[in-house]
Amino acid sequence: xxxxxxxxxxxxxxxxxxxxxxxxxxxxxxxxxxxDKKGIKETVEKxxxxxxxxxxxxxxxKGEKRAIVKLKSKFKxxxxxxxxxxx
Length: 87
Description:
Radius of gyration: 12 Å
CATH architecture: 2-Layer Sandwich
Structural class: alpha+beta
CATH superfamily: RRM (RNA recognition motif) domain
Helix content: 25-40%
Oligomer: single chain
CATH class: Alpha Beta
Order of helices and strands: HEHEHEEH
Number of domains: 1
CATH topology: Alpha-Beta Plaits
Strand order of the largest sheet: 1-2-4-3
């Protein structure tokens, strides 16, 4: 991708994403429709200085693409959410 800031559009803060963040160390983002899993992984690792275990993507009924990013156990998803002001 051209720029890391064009891949991730926004971070999701819903009850489901909060549950994933606390119980499974996962973050949920709205991403560019053209972004692939490898690009999303690279972007999250560079922007937040973490290591990503895996990335799952899906497209919502509204047509937006979302990515569920699981961080390796030595990194905490809640710390990133706190830095971004979501908690």
